[in-house]
Design brief:
Elements lengths: L12 H4 L5 H6 L3 E3 L2 E7 L5 E8 L7 E3 L11 H4 L7 E4 L2 H9 L4 E3 L7 H10 L3 E5 L4 H21 L4 E4 L8 H7 L4 H10 L2 E2 L19 H7 L5 H10 L6 H16 L3 E5 L2 E3 L4 E6 L6 H16 L10 H10 L4 E6 L2 H7 L8 H8 L5 E5 L4 E5 L2 E9 H7 L2 H5 L7 E3 L16 H14 L4 E5 L1 H19 L5 H26 L4 E2 L1 H24 L5 H16 L1 E3 H8 L3 H13 L3 E7 L4 E7 L2
Parallel strand pairs: 5-6, 5-7, 7-8, 10-18, 12-16, 12-17, 13-16, 18-19
Antiparallel strand pairs: 1-2, 2-3, 3-4, 8-9, 10-11, 14-15, 20-22, 21-22
Helix pairs in contact: 5-6, 6-19, 9-21, 10-11, 10-18, 11-12, 12-18, 14-16, 19-21, 20-21, 22-24
Length: 610
């Protein structure tokens, strides 16, 4: 299209009616072509590389985009120029962006529905740390703002940069250009007012923290930052921390298990044909009894018993006895509390336990009907709901499973909870606060009265959609450990829904899942995902050589760097075996090798790389 701008042509009123002055029209090469208002896309050198045209009549389509040209962020040249920007506005479209630019603000334009991941990357790598999203004052604009803010957070984290993002809340039905036309002389003050009242994103729980934008590296400190200071889970953790020095991460997931077991028949989330229940399969891992994993389980078991003792299934039971027990119950719901998970895994390989693994695997999904035929009876269990809370040492677990176990369906249904360092040490724990315990039980009994289907708010749905897209990309592009980690990953998205359900009921007692509850849930899943990777790469190794290699790597990692002689003494393996292990670690880029001079000679040093 060629410019045919004619000042006397009435269609030129398109720009004038929007308050755009001649300097702006000339600078950004705006033009009119017949019955189309054409806005060029200019690169950092001012060269036109694409355009968008808006119809000036009632003809369809309303918009045209340069044929064969890729979509671009409007005014992206601002970011390509090597200048230091103190802030950046993202507006909804070209006219709003031009309005901000004319008023002296740094701005780019992008519609949320077409916002691309590489645009977020460009802003993150070339843009400032402070970004304001100025989308229209309607529901699509607000939803789009959250979608773009979430994409920016992921991009800034990938770039290793901090981000201060605020969503400007425009009056209902208004856009940036509307505000300019209504108050041209005070437009700058209007924008400042919007900044002063901007909503930080993600929305604060108790304090402004990043809730969801860490798909790779969510630490325990990150997770603690979003848990909040109200609701059942918080109260449970406070009670448990007072009477044992077990790591707080144990109490968090024991609290979730206690709540999930109690509510598993009361609430559900419809996903396709399946009703998602709040039953959880959880395995706590720790090195020794000093971590108090059994104590943490015992607290959860005691509270569940006080609420409804029938929810506790026998610790030792055969496959037939389990199915018969469920068949005889009016409500076939319950939980296994297993302080020694390794024992159960070992017993499953015995003849009399044949089929137990398959039963528990099938019951995880809470089928509407579970049938089992034995030599004596036929059982039909309607709507069974089973939970499992187990604990094990890593050594015991590795000793009782092999690679095939990890590739099977049973263990991949579990959430694996790491043994993090203790926050305190108690030589003699104080007596339990019975009043707090009674309040927890009373709270659970009240929460059990909540019945029905849970749904997602629009904000929670948008947040989950964005997270799920990143989750799918990560799972599909996984290389190392895909055969084992893949099946674990496939169920984490459903666990995200389960935790969101529990978060919402625990705090608001409502059936509509809020954005905050979903954000907490997804942060929890990202934390567990990271720990799962670490567990696979550092702990669950099989075969003698792999186990030795793992021991050597852990020792080098613990020290940062270590001499060959010190390493050999610590690991106590032959020089020939150590040579083979070191060669493998060097080839895998886990370590580097160097030399260090001493008084008498040079010695070999191994340095941990990651």
């Amino acid at each position: 299209m060629k410019s045919c701008l004619n000042a006397e042509d009435p269609v030129n009123d398109f720009y004038a009616k929007r308050g755009l002055i001649k300097e702006t029209i000339d600078k950004y090469e705006l033009r009119i072509d017949g019955k189309w208002a054409v806005i060029p896309y200019l690169d950092e050198h001012g060269t036109e590389i694409a355009w968008i045209a808006r119809s000036l009549s009632d003809q369809e389509p309303k918009y045209l985009y340069a044929s064969g040209k890729p979509r671009h962020l409007y005014n992206f040249g601002l970011l390509k120029n090597k200048q230091s920007l103190p802030y950046l506005y993202i507006s909804e479209g070209e006219i709003d962006c031009l309005t901000l630019l004319q008023a002296g603000f740094h701005a780019v334009g992008a519609n949320a529905s077409t916002f691309k991941e590489d645009w977020a990357d460009l802003i993150a790598y070339r843009g400032p740390n402070r970004v304001y999203i100025a989308y229209d004052g309607d529901e699509p604009g607000r939803t789009g703002s959250r979608r773009v803010a979430t994409a920016l957070q992921a991009a800034y984290r990938k770039a290793g940069k901090p981000l201060d993002v605020g969503i400007l809340i425009l009056p209902n039905g208004k856009d940036i250009n509307d505000l300019y036309l209504a108050s041209r002389d005070t437009f700058t003050e209007t924008i400042q007012t919007l900044i002063d009242t901007a909503i930080p994103y993600p929305l604060p729980v108790d304090k402004p923290v990043n809730l969801q934008d860490k798909p790779q590296n969510v630490s325990w400190d990150d997770l603690k930052g979003v848990l909040g200071s109200t609701g059942f889970i918080h109260d449970y953790m406070e009670y448990a921390r007072e009477i044992t020095d077990a790591p707080s991460v144990f109490h968090l997931f024991c609290g979730y298990h206690t709540l999930g077991t109690t509510l598993s028949r009361s609430i559900y989330f419809q996903m396709g044909e399946q009703k998602i229940r709040t039953n959880l399969y959880i395995a706590i891992l720790a090195e020794s009894s000093l971590s108090r994993k059994s104590t943490a389980l015992g607290i959860a078991e005691g509270i569940i018993s006080d609420v409804d003792a029938d929810l506790l299934l026998p610790h030792e039971i055969t496959p037939e006895a389990l199915v018969a027990s469920l068949d005889n119950r009016q409500e076939p719901t319950g939980t296994f509390m297993l302080s020694e998970f390794g024992s159960l895994l070992g017993s499953m390989k015995k003849d009399y336990m044949t089929g137990f693994r398959e039963i528990l695997t099938n019951l995880y999904d809470c089928p509407p009907l579970y049938c089992r035929k034995t030599c004596k009876d036929n059982f039909e269990v309607h709507n069974p709901i089973i939970s499992i809370l187990a604990a094990s040492t890593l050594a015991w677990l590795v000793d009782r499973i092999d690679r095939k176990d990890l590739e099977s369906g049973f263990l991949t249904r579990f959430l694996w909870i790491p043994a993090l360092p203790k926050e305190t040490i108690m030589s003699i724990p104080p007596p339990a606060d019975e009043s707090k315990r009674r309040l927890l039980v009373a709270s659970l009994n009240t929460l059990r009265e909540i019945q029905g289907e849970m749904t997602l708010s629009e904000e929670a749905h948008s947040l989950y959609d964005h997270w799920y897209g990143s989750y799918e990309r990560e799972a599909s592009t996984m290389e190392e450990g895909r055969d084992i980690l893949g099946p674990f990953y496939s169920r984490l998205s459903v666990y995200g829904i389960k935790f969101a359900m529990l978060n919402e009921v625990a705090t608001s007692r409502k059936l509509v899942i809020s954005e905050q509850s979903m954000a907490k849930a997804l942060t929890t899943i990202d934390f567990l995902k990271g720990e799962l990777k670490r567990l696979y790469t550092e702990e669950l190794v099989f075969g003698k050589f792999a186990q030795i290699k793992n021991r050597v790597l852990k020792r080098i990692k613990q020290t940062g760097k270590i001499s060959r002689s010190d390493l050999s003494r610590a690991i106590q393996i032959s020089s020939r075996t150590l040579d083979s292990v070191i060669k493998t670690l060097l080839e895998e880029d886990h370590i580097d090798q160097d030399e260090e001079a001493t008084r008498t000679k040079k010695r070999i040093i191994y340095v941990y790389l990651g």
